[in-house]
Amino acid sequence: MKALRDMSGLEGAVQRAPHWLPVAEADALFEALHIDIPWARHRLRIFGREIEAPRLSCWIGDPDATYRYSGTRFVPQPWPAALAPVRDAVSEAAGIAFNSVLANLYRDGQDAMGWHSDDERELGPRPVIASLSLGATRRFVLKARAPDADGVVARHVLALPHGSLLVMRGDTQALYRHALPRTARPVGPRINLTFRKILR
Ligand SMILES: O=C(O)CCC(=O)C(=O)O
Ligand SMILES: [Fe+2]
């Protein structure tokens, strides 16, 4: 496993390791999760309207780690065998014991996630979120909620390749929104695992 490094311009808040999981392990994990996870379409509430999320998802976690995500309460699915050791390794890398993960499957370039922050109350005020990406490389964009002293709205675009780990911590959710835009490029499926710690 490669060490996490601070992203320039986001020191102390966002870290990543582009090739965190060795390719063979990342390949095996993608295959296992693609089959083992009961993927479903979640409903999101955006500006008071319910929409079907343009991706498939599954909430996984310890039995008492219930969670509200975009207006819906989820009781987590149990950890698939292939995922439990990954949870432990990601927890060690990020320095926090994660008890849940939102797994996302982006079937092709039309699947996406709009602007949001991972700021649900269950995560506490300054949550640590660790995001492991498998499969097709997609662009992940962080955009500041407010302009800086020069009037510039900071924007950071990251490619998240197969096996990469991204950690957001500190005030990242309070100060930034993030999104995974659609792409017209022909891309294969991507699985993203966003590990979270639900406070009880
Ligand atoms: O797919 C990604 O990289 C990000 C997903 C995300 O932000 C989320 O599910 O909260
Ligand atoms: Fe998110």
TrEMBL record:
Keywords on record: Dioxygenase, Oxidoreductase
Pfam families to which the protein is assigned, alphabetical: 2OG-FeII_Oxy_2
Domain Fe2OG dioxygenase: from-to ranges: 97-199
Transmembrane annotation, as ranges: none
SUPFAM superfamilies: Clavaminate synthase-like
GO molecular function, one term: dioxygenase activity
Residue ranges that the Swiss-Prot or TrEMBL entry lists as coiled coil: none
Protein name: Alkylated DNA repair dioxygenase AlkB
